[in-house]
């Protein structure tokens, strides 16, 4: 794990909590924070004690996206493609390929890459005061961090184009109604609900939950026949798991199951 204080990391009840921690910069990403957050998700991949991840931000915002001071064109033309390939794309791939639930609690503004990272998580909750902004249009850039892939799939081409081209803020209630996030929560209840959800998922049959995540993500590009075959294969794998055996045994014995994520 990185020892950077730009990401606060804590493991409890099977949940690895990762908190973006540059509140004075609205948790905008610099290279140090990128590497620290990547280290957190790499730990989640490797550490069997991590059963779920909870991602949130410190202070009054979730993330304003890239720290533009680190990519100032007045100091020379930056290679933003290199930035994406080196930092954002590896992070998105780690989030999407992690076969454990990732809960995101958006506690304030989520702009640019900050918004699209939130949309890439498995279950995203947002404070009612939160706003999602595809801020790229304000500075002549293209949505990244999976934005051009996720947005049209979640809300359709018309809304995706309008969000990306106008950079108008989208409130949390509308984001929930449109299917961009799971739920809008009263500000003072957000973290309690997000933590409770993450703990509940971590205590669940995370082997099967991870396979479910893989199947749903594959559906975006699979044909029906390919998806049916994938369901067959993943169900076979799930059926051989200790979690399945425990779940059925507990049901038949009328007791609470004790899943191990195996």
TrEMBL record:
<dbReference type="InterPro" id="IPR014748">
    <property type="entry name" value="Enoyl-CoA_hydra_C"/>
</dbReference>
<dbReference type="GO" id="GO:0016853">
    <property type="term" value="F:isomerase activity"/>
</dbReference>
<dbReference type="Pfam" id="PF00378">
    <property type="entry name" value="ECH_1"/>
</dbReference>
<keyword id="KW-0413">Isomerase</keyword>
<dbReference type="InterPro" id="IPR001753">
    <property type="entry name" value="Enoyl-CoA_hydra/iso"/>
</dbReference>
<dbReference type="InterPro" id="IPR029045">
    <property type="entry name" value="ClpP/crotonase-like_dom_sf"/>
</dbReference>
<dbReference type="GO" id="GO:0010124">
    <property type="term" value="P:phenylacetate catabolic process"/>
</dbReference>
<dbReference type="InterPro" id="IPR011968">
    <property type="entry name" value="PaaB1"/>
</dbReference>
<comment type="similarity">
    <text>Belongs to the enoyl-CoA hydratase/isomerase family.</text>
</comment>
<protein>
    <submittedName>
        <fullName>2-(1,2-epoxy-1,2-dihydrophenyl)acetyl-CoA isomerase</fullName>
    </submittedName>
</protein>
